[in-house]
Structure formats: C-alpha cells, structure tokens
C-alpha cells in the first residue's frame, strides 16, 4: 500500500470535509432552532463568494497588501452574507412560522431559485476566475509535499471557527438562548427569551459561516459561478444529515466523514463517481441510523 498516496487522500478529504462542515453548520443550526431546512443556504454561500471576488478586485486595484485584501474581502463577504441571511429569514420564513411545515419549505426553495437567478442576471452565467487570497508563506514549505499553504490555512481556519462557535454556543448568553429555544421554544418564551432575535441571530451566524467557507473554497478552486451554491449546498446538507441534523458536533463530524469518503472514493476508484459515493453513504446512514451519526431519535409520546 502506498502510504504517501493514502496520506495525500486523507489530507485532501480533511480539507474538503472542513469546508463542508462549515456550511453544514448553517443547516443544522437553523433546523435545530425552528426545524426548517434552509434550502437558500447554498445561495448565501454563493453570494459570499461573489462579494469576496468583487471586494478583492477593488482592493487589489487600490494597491492593498495581500493579507489586508484577504481580511477585508473576507469581512465584506461575512457582512454581506449575514445581511442576506437576516433578510431571507425576515421575508421568507418569519411570516410563515405558524403555517403548515410545507409552506416554509416551498418558500425556501423559491428563495433559492430567486437568489440564483438574481446573481445570474447581475453577474454572468460563465465561470469567473477567483484569485488565491492566501499568500504563500515560507514556514509552510516543510509540509508542501502533503498540503499546500492554502489547504493548511483552510484546515486551520475551519478548526478555529468551529471551536469558537462551540464555545459561543456553550458559554455566551445568546448561545444559551439558542440552546433553550432549540429544546423548547414555548418554554424559552415563558422565561423571557426573545425567540425572534434568537432565530435571526441563528441565520446571521449560519450565513457568516457560509461566507467563510465560500472564501476558503473559492480561493482553493480558483473559479466561481452562480450555480456553485446548489452543488456545495447539497453536499453540506448531506453532511448535516449524515452527522445528525440539529447536532452541531454532528455537522462537523458529518462534513469530515463525507469529505474523506469522497476523497478516498475518487482516489481509489474513479473521480467520475464522486457524487455517487457521497449519496450512497447518505442512503446507508438513513437506512441503518436514520438519526445520523450523533443525532438522537425523537421519542413519540402516545
């Protein structure tokens, strides 16, 4: 067995899985709070990528140094995506909160299609080049045989963001309000939790994470177009279901498992079946463990 090739595939899977996990967190947080699959989340990711592209172009023309371009373009993507996430929740989901569950689902699909076509008309249907925003650093040359500097930064950034999110959810006042709302929304309202603000904060945080993932993966892939949100969003949703929809640690684990499955499958079998491996794994999990790897089955009282 070629251990060097195995290590390369493993690291590639971790890189891909880290990005899936970041985006999957947005799905799982929203579902955990209001039990809604936000199908427009992939388009929020796509808008973050285009925002970073535009901001990076303006800053490059203005002569800003590399690291400042990365930071400012990422900040612009996060702020713009967060504002879109907040607006989508306010317009498409909040008015339907008391409606039958099919209504917000249809609204989510409609918002996804609307945002896709909005960016298509505002930009172009063609792929657009996305420059690598991560400067090459000399101290990363020692591991360049396994990972590029960009991939190291992707793994490090994803790990830091997920750790900070976990600490935020566990210790902050807003995080505790989120956990209370997820456990019992009506009881949370009775003890003084502003549920509307909690739900809005959830959409803002999830959209911000999607924007971070957009900057990371666009820098690594080198091109974007209006349709990237659909593909990545579908994979991230698969990761969320795989880990246990509604479970934050499950979204992280599901993303890594999905990324490694795709990497090893394409490496040892064929890259033509990348999506087949991902969704075959999803089907198997749904058959043998419907709640996901870390999800908990609901107990129905009769």
Automatic annotation (TrEMBL):
Membrane spanning residue stretches: 20-37, 44-61, 67-86, 106-126, 146-169, 276-295
UniProt keyword annotations, A-Z: Amino-acid transport, Cell inner membrane, Cell membrane, Membrane, Transmembrane, Transmembrane helix, Transport
UniProt KW Transmembrane helix keyword: yes
Secretion signal, residue range per the UniProt entry: none
Molecular function terms from GO: L-isoleucine transmembrane transporter activity; L-leucine transmembrane transporter activity; L-phenylalanine transmembrane transporter activity; L-valine transmembrane transporter activity
Superkingdom field: Bacteria
Subcellular location: Cell membrane
Transcription among keywords: no
Pfam families: BPD_transp_2
Gene Ontology cellular-component terms listed: plasma membrane
Membrane-protein topology: Multi-pass membrane protein
GO biological process: D-alanine transmembrane transport; L-alanine transport; L-isoleucine import across plasma membrane
Family: Belongs to the binding-protein-dependent transport system permease family. LivHM subfamily.
Name listed for the protein in its UniProt record: Amino acid/amide ABC transporter membrane protein 1, HAAT family (TC 3.A.1.4.-)
């Amino acid at each position: 067995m070629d251990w060097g090739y195995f290590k390369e595939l493993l690291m590639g899977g971790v890189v891909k899985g880290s990005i899936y996990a970041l985006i999957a967190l947005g799905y799982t947080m929203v579902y955990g709070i209001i039990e809604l699959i936000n199908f427009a989340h992939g388009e929020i990711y796509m808008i973050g990528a285009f925002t970073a592209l535009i901001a990076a172009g303006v800053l490059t023309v203005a002569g800003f140094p590399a690291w400042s371009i990365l930071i400012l373009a990422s900040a612009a993507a996060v702020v713009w995506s967060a504002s879109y996430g907040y607006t989508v929740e306010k317009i498409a989901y909040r008015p339907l909160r008391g409606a039958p569950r099919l209504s917000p689902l249809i609204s989510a699909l409609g918002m996804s299609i609307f945002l896709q076509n909005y960016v298509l008309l505002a930009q172009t249907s063609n792929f657009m080049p996305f420059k690598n925003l991560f400067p090459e650093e000399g101290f990363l040359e020692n591991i360049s045989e396994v990972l590029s500097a960009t991939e190291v930064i992707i793994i490090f950034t994803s790990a830091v963001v997920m750790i900070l999110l976990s600490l935020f959810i566990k210790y902050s006042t807003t995080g505790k309000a989120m956990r209370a709302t997820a456990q019992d929304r009506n009881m949370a309202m009775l003890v003084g939790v502003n549920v509307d603000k909690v739900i809005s904060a959830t959409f803002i945080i999830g959209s911000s994470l999607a924007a971070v993932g957009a900057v990371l993966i666009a820098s690594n892939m080198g091109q974007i177009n209006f349709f990237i949100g659909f593909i990545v969003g579908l994979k991230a949703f698969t990761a969320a279901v795989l880990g246990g929809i509604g479970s934050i640690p499950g979204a992280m684990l599901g993303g890594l498992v999905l990324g490694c499955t795709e990497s090893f499958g394409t490496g040892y079998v064929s890259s033509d079946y990348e999506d087949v491996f991902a969704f075959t794994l999803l089907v198997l999990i749904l058959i043998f463990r419907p709640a996901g790897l870390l999800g908990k089955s609901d107990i129905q009282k009769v």
